[in-house]
Amino acid sequence: MSEVYDHNTVFPRMFSQKPGHDQFYKNWEQLGDNQSPTFANNLGFFFTWQINQMYTRYFLWNFVGRTNEMDGQLSNQWIDGNWISGWNFNKVLPLSVTQSKSYHRLYFLPLILGLLGAIFHFRRNQQYAAVVGILFFFTGLAIVLYLNQDPYQPRERDYAYAGSFYAFAIWIGLGVLFVAEQLGRKEKTKNAAMLATVVCLALVPVLMAGQEWKDHDRSTKLTAHDMAYNYLNSCAPNAILFTYADNDTYPVWYLQEVENVRPDVRIINLSLLGTDWYIRQMKTKMNKSAPAPITMPDEKFAKGVRDVIYFSDAKIPGMEVKDLFNFVTSDDKNNKAQYPNGDMVNYLPTKNLAIRVNADEVIKTGTLPDDKKFGIDSLMTFVYPSNYIAKENLALLDIMAHNDWKRPIYFSLTVPTDEMMGMERYLYNEGFAYRLLPLKPDTALKPLEADNSLLMYNNIMTKFKWGNMKTASYLDHESLTTFYPLITTIFLSLTENLIREGHPDLAKNVLEKYDEVMPALIPVSDVAIRKYYMAQGAYRLNDIALGNKITGQLYGYLTNLLYYNYTLFADGKTDLNNHDIQLGMSMLNGMAGLTKQFSQTSFSNKCSEQVKSYEFKFGVGK
């Protein structure tokens, strides 16, 4: 059935049907729940988000300055990821800016020189200037018009407009001639040219190099390399490792193909598994890894065949995965549904799935040791989370139906949960990958909270590498906002599970390892929350010095958040970050109680005084 669009408009910009995008559009354009976007709303979104937020901001990063490396594409109010000139006139800035190596202050000078060059160019030769202007437009704003970007881009998109920045750089070069021409009116031509070159060189390229070199030097950063190494070395021999998208997969491919690290592991990229050519490739041997256990003949998943299989409830209580797979790939008309136009199609008859487990086979294949035999779940049950089976899900069903525990199956930690087919209760973290294990789920834990703790402990303490994160001269956005929080979560989860399982000495070693290999950073608020629980764990394990060290980091981070927001409040600003204010007050209050419990009275009082001070300053409870 085709979609019916009843809100057509000229120049549509708010169009996406992806989850969450409708709410983003409403929030950005301040629409009510029952309001539909008008032509004016579409224009507003185009100018404020697509042009201003997703192009102009990037342009100004290059020629005016930048606050920090954070992703600022979703808000034009807060300071993270925004442009800044450096002419702040003693304006208070948060530590997330002032301590960032991407804090660039260019004072408008490259922009001014480029604008002068453009004026000079158009005065001297309009035809040539128009060529540069057309290049500038078509590699910049024209791309904005053409792409019609929707929200929640997976990364900043400044690289897409590099051509327009190069075009503007031509005008920066011509700006030197403009300056020389102006100086030539008072100086000899030769002297003017030399003086203009020296002055412009000092004011623009030297300034830019001085400000920007520190976050363009990636020579000591090994995050991608070492995280890929950890993905591979989380896996048992001859494993199948499911990854997702580019950031997961390309570094792993590099390690296998170039450095010959763990060539026995079969990498399967779920983002590519929806294509027929990639499924065919997975059916072949690669490096030292055997073919994936995909049984479908090529014609069963050819392009245009079973691209999507929709759910139609047949009131079946449940089906084993093998039976379901045979059903949805059957060419028997009795196993198909008929559309009104007469087409016969496969369908998903139930979402309640199961995998029957032979405990003896599981032990025989080495999936689990003998002492775990009585914990094996003879019938793994789970609920398929979607209303359709896409081609990648179909191939995954094939693997699950026919692997029979012969090969270990893992999902990298960054695979979205909706790609795990509802099997989260049977996934156990072994480092940087979840392993599928047929153990009876621990109902006290949430999905994906379970660890294979002792094996994970060995991996973390003896096998893994940590991307030089402690000593790298620069950590990029992905290192700070993806992998640093992920690593913190891994260490915290293992610590808590080791304590729960009665291994306090090992848990203490894990916290000390984290302190040894990770820098003392709090790049995002989620890390602050995790570090609070780390401090709590350190105190419980009688590592008072480490507990105090972590709470000290938190104190500096939280008081800075509150101070920065208070300066905005005192200045009459309304665009305060209420989340940061609530986080600061709540966590300082929590640290006051935590440190008092472990006899750190002086620090506890300091936290309490800050809470009282900011309650008064913000007028809380008045």
If you had to describe this structure to a student in words, what would you say it looks like?
The protein has 622 residues and is of the alpha/beta class. It has 22 helices and 14 strands. The chain has helices at 21-29, 39-63, 95-98, 109-124, 126-138, 141-147, 162-184, 189-203, 205-212, 223-233, 245-257, 276-282, 321-328, 359-364, 391-402, 453-463, 477-500, 504-517, 525-540, 544-570, 578-597, 601-617, and strands at 65-66, 104-105, 240-243, 266-269, 308-310, 319-320, 336-338, 344-346, 352-356, 379-383, 388-390, 409-412, 427-429, 433-436. The strands form five sheets. A five-stranded mixed β-sheet has the order 4-3-12-14-13. Strand 3, helix 11 (245-257) and strand 4 form a beta-alpha-beta unit. Helix 4 crosses helix 5, helix 5 runs antiparallel to helix 7 (162-184) and helix 17 (477-500) runs antiparallel to helix 18. The mean pLDDT is 93.
Query: For the report, how would you describe the main beta sheet?
Result: 5 strands, mixed
- Secondary-structure class: alpha/beta
Order of strands across the main sheet:
4-3-12-14-13
- Total number of beta strands: 14
| Rg over alpha carbons | 29 Å
Described by the principal axes of the CA atoms, the overall outline is: globular
Strand % is 5-15%
pLDDT average, as an integer?
93
Bin the helical content: 40-55%
The first-to-last residue Cα distance is: 57 Å
Low-confidence stretches: none
Topology:
Elements: H1 21-29, H2 39-63, E1 65-66, H3 95-98, E2 104-105, H4 109-124, H5 126-138, H6 141-147, H7 162-184, H8 189-203, H9 205-212, H10 223-233, E3 240-243, H11 245-257, E4 266-269, H12 276-282, E5 308-310, E6 319-320, H13 321-328, E7 336-338, E8 344-346, E9 352-356, H14 359-364, E10 379-383, E11 388-390, H15 391-402, E12 409-412, E13 427-429, E14 433-436, H16 453-463, H17 477-500, H18 504-517, H19 525-540, H20 544-570, H21 578-597, H22 601-617
Parallel strand pairs: 3-4, 3-12, 6-9
Antiparallel strand pairs: 1-2, 5-11, 7-8, 9-10, 12-14, 13-14
Helix pairs in contact: 4-5, 4-7, 5-7, 7-8, 8-9, 10-11, 13-15, 16-17, 17-18, 17-19, 19-20, 19-21, 20-21, 20-22, 21-22
